[in-house]
Specification:
Blueprint (H helix, E strand, L loop, with lengths): L4 H27 L1 H18 L6 H15 L3 H17 L4 H10 L2 H15 L7 H13 L4 H10 L2
Length: about 160
């Protein structure tokens, strides 16, 4: 069977539509720097919640609420970013891509606020796991947060 030129164009258009429809969330986030910051913060919060090997419903609700409050998102948008953050967390090789985005886009005070939010997630289940504490410290270092600000954020998060 010989493929005609119009068939090839239709096939390419179908592939293009498939990728456009299935990758639109990633592309939309790339084109909106503020959404990328929200995603980066959400991925870091998911990483903290997974440090003790589980993302429980309390942590999920807290992350959603934090995204809504801190980034002025609707409940639907916060849920969508949380879902995308979970996917990104599954595929992320390191935290550097997320912390680099935050370092490039946020002020020192905003970065300390991110650390405070991470502490809130760590304390969400009322048990501070040693791995949660380790990851918050690691992220604070990657965000160039001083030890004093790190401790202050921890105390202010309770």
């Amino acid at each position: 069977m010989l493929i005609q030129f119009p068939d090839i164009i239709n096939m390419l258009n179908s592939l293009k539509d498939f990728f456009k429809n299935n990758l639109i969330n990633d592309a939309a986030l790339d084109n909106e720097p503020s959404r990328s910051i929200e995603l980066a913060a959400a991925v870091l919060m998911v990483e903290i919640s997974l440090a003790d090997s589980s993302l429980d419903s309390d942590e999920r609700r807290l992350i959603t609420r934090v995204l809504q409050q801190e980034f002025k998102l609707s409940a639907v948008d916060a849920q969508a970013i949380l879902s995308l953050a979970e996917q990104e967390s599954d595929h992320a090789v390191s935290l550097h891509e997320f912390t680099r985005l935050i370092n490039d886009s946020m002020s020192a005070g905003d970065k300390v606020r991110i650390i405070q939010l991470l502490w809130q997630v760590a304390f969400a289940d009322s048990v501070l796991d040693k791995y949660e504490e380790y990851y918050v410290r690691k992220i604070a270092d990657l965000l160039y947060i001083s030890h004093a600000d790190y401790i202050r954020a921890k105390h202010n998060s309770r």
